Amino acid sequence: MDTITWNHPCYFCHRPITRGRPALLFSTGEPVLIGVSHSTCCATKYRYGHLQTCPPNRLTSDQVSFITHFYPMLYSLPGGDNPDRELRWSLARLFDRYPASVKKPRPILKRFVKEQQRWGIEWLYTGDLEMDFLRFLGRVQRMAKENPVEVKVDFRR
Question: What is the pLDDT of residues 46-59, one digit of tens each?
């Protein structure tokens, strides 16, 4: 099993990562962990899924597998001004407090719905958002179990 830790080379500048809040890079087209980067190196690279780590927290291989499968499935959903964009928007909020948010995802969804109502954003979702939200997470979890990624992230000193 591979471990991403301090002194791992940055995907973009190839210098070792020795401090800060490194970002994990994921493909948005297929379930692949691309690498790790300095947060400043990947700041303008929008074709990748970014997850900024918060050292000294660590991610297990199960968590990395979940994220690896999450990003391509998230980016396949409609976004922007398209109908049914709310599912993608609400799922993207899970990474505000990852990994704790995946253990209790409903509060994240409820907070998202309240914010949309408070700001008066036009609601374009045609289905049952809560059911689709939980179904999406279930599919990601199943894919992560069936096709695990054997990488863990440990930025403890």
Answer: 899 999 998 888 99
